[in-house]
Amino acid sequence: MYDSRITRRDLLKLAGVLTLSYMFPQVSTTPIQQSSNQENVLVIVFDAFSASNISLYRYPRKTTPNIDRLADEAIVYHNHFAGGNFTTPGTATLLTGVLPWTHRAIGFNDVVAKTYTHKSIFHAFDTYHPLAFSHNLLANTLLKDFFTGMEGLTPREKLYLQGDKFINTLFSADDDISTVGWQRAFNRQLDGTTYSLFLSRIYEFYKNQGFQNIQKDFPRGLPSLAGIYNFLLEDSINWLQNQISTSLQPFIGYYHFLPPHDPYHTRADFYNAFAKDGYRPPNKPRHVLQENHSTQKLLAWRQEYDEYILYVDSEFARLFNFMEEQGFLDNTWLVLTSDHGEMFERGIRGHRTKVLHQPVIHIPLLIFPPGERSRVDIYDVTSAIDVLPTLTHVTGNNIPDWTEGTILSPFSNKVQTTERDVFSIQAEGLDRSNHITKATVSMIRKPYKLMYYFGYDELGESRELVELYNIVADLEELNNLFDSEKDVTNKLLSVLKKKLEAVR
Amino acid sequence: MDIYTLPKKVFYFSKEELWTLFLISAFPIHVWTIILVLRDFSWVSERTDSWDAVGVGAYGLLIAFVESLLVFIIAILISALIRDPWKEGRKIVLLFTLVMVVSIWAMINQLYFLSGLSIPESVFRFLTRQAHPLRVIYILVLGVVAPTVLLPIYFVIKSDKFVNGLQGVIDRISLLMMFYLVLDVGGLIIVIIRNL
Description:
Largest sheet of chain B: none
Oligomer: heterodimer
Strand order of the largest sheet of chain A: 3-6-1-7-10-2-11
Order of helices and strands of chain B: HHHHHHH
Number of helices of chain B: 7
Shape of chain B: flat
Helix content of chain B: over 70%
Structural class of chain B: mainly alpha
Strand content of chain B: under 5%
Number of helices of chain A: 14
Largest interface: A-B, 29 and 35 residues
Order of helices and strands of chain A: HEHEHHHEHHHHEEHEHEEEHEEHEEEEH
Strand content of chain A: 15-25%
Shape of chain A: globular
Helix content of chain A: 25-40%
Largest sheet of chain A: 7 strands, mixed
């Protein structure tokens, strides 16, 4: 079976057939045409990009040599957390500025509650030109919802290398399910089976023929969404460069690229870069909700993931250099972040897991203010919900009244108190219109992090579990303080339960 | 030989035999599709709803129908290789045998992935000791596959009992396949409704 964390349907909608060489015009070198004095906002999201694996955030492997260097021109947030554990809740939180229990995009391929369809970053910047793209099906579903009645969302199929676009054209009224049917009939890469006994082989042969010239550059296979939608990050960055060069300004751009989300198919120049470095992460106890992956397998996946991050790092640097050369960095707020992380420990791989340990929710956040060339390090605990109010604030726009976030340091005049609680939520599988009865919630109140699991049958009669960590003294969450710091646990748990009562 | 006279002599099947040939060509493809559609039903309906799961099955059945037509055409072309004096009934049995054997191997190929089996290490060790491991693999595959094709053919040629037995199977399969064709029509209607 295909890895359960990437369900087949996640990955089954189809892409465009055009080869990219036809799709991408030469990158424009036209100087920036400012139609307004307002600054642009460009949010770059790399999917499943865990801060725990980024050398900028003290990961022992040098996974982000370029970002480490470029951070000298950025505000670097060291304790930034995603709203959820996978694309739907994570992205919706970033785009709306409210937590998953408010926007209710908590399940696979959900959209936000109707009351939030018109409460997104694009609506907050309502005088800007909205631009958006995502390789990721789930993020694209959210974007399509937010872009109802608006122009500026580029179909995700545009940047896939090749697909079966005719299916989407032929069955345009049912492109989603027709694509699932088509993929199940012909694509062996899903779980090794296809409805078709014979034609699937011909299809595979045809598809491979189209990719032959680039396959040598990707020894583990072409970057893809679960082996179905192939793409090259290089092409996506080229296309983005062209889009921002030709767009009307000011723009609010949201670009959500899939790497380093699995499958971890890095480019040849980064292949096996960490194969012989001897790095061994701290040995961590297996979690009661683990997936039984062996340590050896987790190490191998971690290495592939880390090498995929090198690819991301390299392409981000290329984008940054382009923006610098073209003068965009003088009038654009550039934001680099992610929707959630990825983990390779405690017997668990990936992010669609019930646990919310640091690798799953600790994500990067770098803000490059226009014209700034100095580094600021922020160690406050911050959340994805803070990005929207911060960006509206720094660009002189009104902060929407719906957001639950705060203006980030150093832009806020307020000094953050230690009492600020930052939440991340995992509640996949619940009916979003009902009460949250089965979920994991992480609550961070520096220096503590409480994880509250409830409603899971695997947890025995109580169906509950509580973990407490001091994430300042114990970055790796090795010592569960649940027993030794009962007072803290009870205090935080009480706050969390009250919060849950309020939002249920 | 005049190519235009070829179909009459070599490709000749009665309408009933052509229909039977189509049904037996379609049978293994439909069985496999239906098994996988049923297997997929739960995850698709969990992710979206049952109507979508039915939709996936409907597209699967349409594709199975198209694939069946192609296999049917190939079966007719293969029949050109079978010598004239053969009774048509025996020809159908032989084609049925070939379609089934090839289909079963295609299914085994997929089941191999599905079951998560892997080739025993001892086999790998054996292969790595060989001077030409690829040749050895081809010989091994041929050694396994060839008897499964040649033996049934031999029995079709030599044994009337075998042929009669298979004809009984073909009759039953044809009946069952008619039911599957009704499902195909249902699939077509579902696809049309979904695309209205």
